[in-house]
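dumping this here before i forget
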Amino acid sequence: MAALTAVATALPAVWAVAATCPFDTGGSDAVNDGVVLARYALGITGVPLVASTRYASLDPLQVKNNIECVGCALDMNGDGQIDTVDTTIIARHLAGFNGDSLTSGLTLGTGSRNSATAVTSFLVNGCAAGGAVNAFTLGGNAFGNVGAPAVLGTTDGKPLTVGTGGGSGLRIAPAPDLVFVDAIAIVNGSANNALGPAGSTVAGGGYSRNDCFDSFTGQSNRSCSNSASGAGSTVSGGAANNAGGGYAAVSGGSGNTANGAYSSIVGGLANAAIGTSSTVAGGERNYASGFASFAAGFRARALHDLSFVWGGSSTVDTATSAAGQFRVYAPESIRMYASTAPGAGCIL
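structure:
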């Protein structure tokens, strides 16, 4: 324990380190530090306090003073005194115990930290003497009558990351601008998914390869990560998807690009919605570049404003030649029914 090895001067310096207990700064162990603390709690002083420990060569009075210098931070159960309950918890903590095992079999009394969760929170929070127990711990928390909902986050404007192994996970960052005054950007899923501008969201998906199909080049060399690079845009999942237009959205699929403002792609493979308010309902290699245009099926190209195209061929494009066209390519037939009776309707 720095409290014991560095004698009088170390403990105040150690205590100045945020969210670090005096016995958690390195070099502490249950065999030496835990034993000395337990002896202190039992009222043992003088040479017997440090006998047969690595502190035997130190002045026992100075060791006693060092312990008392941070006494408040050693009061684990918050009852205003340092006793065998506190030193047992500290010794267990130094030995690697955590959770309920820290306080198992101990009577915590009526102090301010009379549960395993509260004691664990106190330890995680750096033994902040006299302060609120406000650290989140494994297994849940009871924050008492703090008067407000518990908040997990940052207060300095820096991004918050809730990660897993390899760096993947949820990232939340403030992204204010003139439109989204207090907006945030959210990205989840692969660590390669890009954090976008104000109001943008990548809900998940993506991975760290570069072999996804590119709808513009026709080659499998596109990054498989997802990005929402337009303000207020959303990518819900899938891979290699980008919502680049303002307020654009891609629900899923792979290799889809919604670069038009207010454009949307439901899913499918290698689709592009480039026009303002354009839509690709799904399918593969469809392209909607006209204002309020719609494309679906296979190789449908709604190139003009207010056009609707259904593509039904894997070898040729079905494309508009002027605004306001409704084009459907169905190689076998188009059937339009006005009745459910057998044979009713018109075959085109």
